[in-house]
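Lay summary. Proteins are chains of building blocks that fold into shapes, and those shapes determine what they do. In this project we predict the shape from the chain. Here is one chain we studied, written as its sequence of building blocks.
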Amino acid sequence: MTDSEPPPLTLPPSIAEWVRANPLPTQLLTGDGGVLITNAAFSTLLNQLGRGPDDLLTDLLPTGWELPVSQKGWFATLRSGECLVKKLRLRGDQRYTFHLVKLTLPGGVCLCCMLMPGDDLSEARLVGILNSIACYVMEIDTRGNLSYLNDPLRERLGYALGDLKRLGHVRQLWDRFRTDELLRLLAEVDNHGQVQFRGGLTRKDGKVMPMEISIVASQLPNESLYLVTARDVAAKFSHEVSLNTALVEVGEYARTVENENHDLRAKLNYRVEETHLVYRSAAFGAVVRRIQHVAPGDDCVLITGEPGTGKQLIGRAIHELSRRADQPLITVDCAALPPALLERELFTYQPDTFAKAANLRPAYYQAAAGGTLLLREIGALPLPMQARLLEMMEGETTPPVRLLATTNLDLQRLAERGSFRAELLDRLNVYPVACIPLRERRADIYPLVRHFIDTFNQQYGNGISGIDATSLRHLQAYHFPGNIRELEQIVERAYILAAGGLPPQPQPTKASRHPGKPPELNLFDGMLTEFVAFEEYQRKYLQRVLDSAAGKVSGEGGAAEILGMHPQTLFSKLRKLGIRR
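And here is the predicted shape, written in a compact code that computers can read:
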């Protein structure tokens, strides 16, 4: 076997056992036509008819194709889930229908051949095969309406044959069904031929069964149908839950150790924090490339940008990407300490308050030896302190300290006015990094929201799944004078309101929204969203139900039956809300 050839397909034991036990003549082939397994009924029938497997395949070939030269190429044209059916009249005027379908197995693809008595092509959907195979199968259309459910799936979900007439839409089986998600999956099938994902199917008793689900196009002429196959992964899911429980326990132990470590580091007045740069935009991608360029060196870096743009995070990223990553990163906020205290903390050894008073702990500058000193808002540093800092930078330190500084001020203008030392600015401004405001990287708003949701889910113990599209559009249209910090506060406020049981604040409609007002997000139905007027909520909900019922209001499977309403009441409500079918 060459490197370019795929590994040989190994049949799962359950599939091989099904082929042998199947009373119908059945044969499985590899994706290029090689025989995998043939049951006794298939061999016996071919011997009685005096036909070979290739004779049957030739009957299916389009005009102009010949076996075996073009066999592999012909099979390659079939898509997974595609079914071919041919009427056969064999010796003694015996009538059969030959079915061939391309299936996807865990190890690859195979071709399932089956001979069925009779010549009724209405069996083109392989009902007999799908009811016999050890796999859960359903068939849906582009709107999610159910047209077929095979016996193994029906029994696994606890439904009797008489219950099938009540199962009109996939929403009745699909846990957490959403129309927009179904349309996205079907569009991916149309583009790529198949889609696979983890989901859940709901039993008749309400229990949700975890499944690995695959969707392929049914490939029947003049029909927009899709085959949905599912594999029960309850045992695997249970194993994953056990692993996740163990991981949580390990994580709690790790946090305990980290907290102890943090207390020890607090005695030395510095913190080591994780570096997270969350972005998708090309604009911030250029900033990241700048960071990667300057990080390996030892020169000073001046990080500029508006308040809340993440300047301190960029400073930590530079440290983590440098050769000093295993050495201390010490952060000092120049605007937070009085000048007298700042000088003592920066340059003078101080008594260790955690130990005996006679012991001295290193000041920030000495503690950063061999590592990085990050001075936040260096523009607030008084002139005498600037001179002292410049003196320290020009002196001999072993090992040396790398200096990073952040500012939201125009230091060049301050230097021209005499309130910032020009010599210090020259030393700091060797490799400047400009942190762009959030309004210039709007493509990063969604990944940042997702990052904050994950963070606050852990902090507040919630399971918020995301943010609705309307609220996201409002966030992307907002100016964000407070940048990323303001976005984080908007998301956290929604969590705090929910945790405290405070009533949500009603929001103005889109038409009356002031463009300078930040969106007020709330937690609703597992999503971050903005509350709307009750009438608008009714309109949206009824429209979704109506869409799922293909516009049908009354009768079996109609919107009135789904909502448990009298059809005339629903008709009246639709007219009142201006909803058209």
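What the prediction tells us: The chain has a mean pLDDT of 76.
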